[in-house]
Amino acid sequence: MAESSAQAHTWDPMERFNRTMFRFNDRLYTYALRPATRAYERAVPKPVRQGIVNAFDNLHFPIRFVSSLLEGRVGRAARETEKFGLNTVLGLGGLIRVSDQVPQLAHLPPQDVGLAFGSWGIGAGPYVVLPILGPGDVRDFAGEACDYFLSPTNWDAIHLGHRTWIANPYRVPIQSLDVASAIPRAIHAYDAVVGDAVDPYIAAREAFFSHRRADAAR
Amino acid sequence: MKSRLTRVSALLIALTALELHGGAEPQATQPEVLLHETLDEVLDVAYPQKAVSGGTGLEQRALPILEKAFDFGAITRRAIGPGWRQFSEDERRRSIREFRDLVVHTYASRIRGDERPRITYGTPERQGEDRCDVPTRVLYDGETYAVEYRMERHAGAWRVTDVVIEGISFVSNYRAQFDGIMQRGGSSAVIQAIESRLAKTAEGKP
């Protein structure tokens, strides 16, 4: 059955450590991030919040473009470029996701370097829960490290040869806003997974693996 | 206008399915039509009467609608897995009733916010005579979610036996949770875990 083969992929040799980290993160969400999310959602109107999320998602284009190429999916990379161009030009720098109105660009599946590593046949490695960062496997955390360097929000400047073309003196505030704007979505996703769970740790672990497998299959 | 378009496209999907299957089944028994009607009914009771986000009232109103379309017996049996064989008749009845309440609560708690979700229906994928997966996309709170309903036909009636949200199967996820509990404490521990979860839910605790 599909369920048993899915569970066979779950490798959690550090479960005791992971459960401790899971409890730590759960308390962090309960006492800091969930109240902060509620305050943010009360203070900032929804269209503004959505605009910020859209803009950062648009800025993460290089992650999707490069990882599509790493997977050898040139057509997918072209569609990502089209989406980025459309949202940047017609969507006021990405604030408005104009691409949602274009059927072939509206539902492009997630793409990142971790998925590209998976497509090369690199194994997921053990399941790890890290403080603050949350659940993942070794391959995905390595992929996220690459994603970090591919995201323009983490760049100081764009150099070409010896010349600096675009300097980014606001890297730290931009990075902070990028991370902060992603927190409400992460909290809602976490609550949706563990909210009615009888074993929240297992629910989160299985949800992580199922979700990543589905991303890889798309 | 958009909801009319959605209804028209659902009708087209239903008609296409009828044609593909030689028109042998009456339209009312098509799984995607049943699903569409059920989800519409659930959203009708949730909006616009819904005064507050979520709310226990919604669960009571949604239960009779979901009971017609969801096979809670199959959902519970599969979520518990091979350990089901160790359940007595009474434990089976209790676990189905309590797990049904948990499923309905989980489902109702996904409906938050004041904006009615917009659902678009993809082409149903037949997995044999009596199995059909109906893919949908739910536009909700500015985000789009892929939600697939796995349906099966028993005694001529189609019922939902699993819901897969963004690749996460409801049945498989609970199965993984119950596996450890079953191994440690048997059927009574599983029922106790469901009861304890329901009690926390009633108190509004995470």
Give the strand content of chain B: 15-25%
The CATH architecture classification of chain B is Roll
**Which two chains form the greatest contact, residue counts included?**
A-B, 33 and 34 residues
Structural class of chain B: alpha+beta
Q: Strand count, sense and closure of the main sheet of chain A?
A: 2 strands, antiparallel
Q: Radius of gyration of chain B, Cα only, in angstroms?
A: 18 Å
Cα-to-Cα separation, first versus last residue of chain A: 21 Å
Keywords:
heterodimer; A: 218 residues; mainly alpha; two-stranded antiparallel ribbon; B: 206 residues; alpha+beta; 6 helices; 19% strand; globular
Structural overview:
- The complex is a heterodimer of chains A (218) and B (206).
- Chain A has helices at residues 2-8, 15-43, 46-59, 61-70, 74-89, 103-106, 113-119, 138-150, 171-194, 200-217, and strands at 127-130, 134-137, 157-160, 163-167.
- Chain A is mostly helical and 218 residues long.
- Chain A has one domain (12-217).
- Chain A has a two-stranded antiparallel sheet.
- In chain A, a hairpin with a 3-residue loop joins strand 1 and strand 2 (134-137).
- Chain B contains 6 helices and 6 strands.
- By secondary structure, chain B is α+β, with helices and mostly antiparallel strands.
- The radius of gyration of chain B is 18 Å and the shape is globular.
- Chain B has one domain (2-203): Nuclear Transport Factor 2, Chain: A (Roll).
- In chain B, a hairpin with a 2-residue loop joins strand 3 (131-140) and strand 4 (143-154).
- Chains A and B meet through helix 1, helix 3, helix 9 and helix 10 of A and helix 5, strand 4, strand 6 and helix 6 of B.
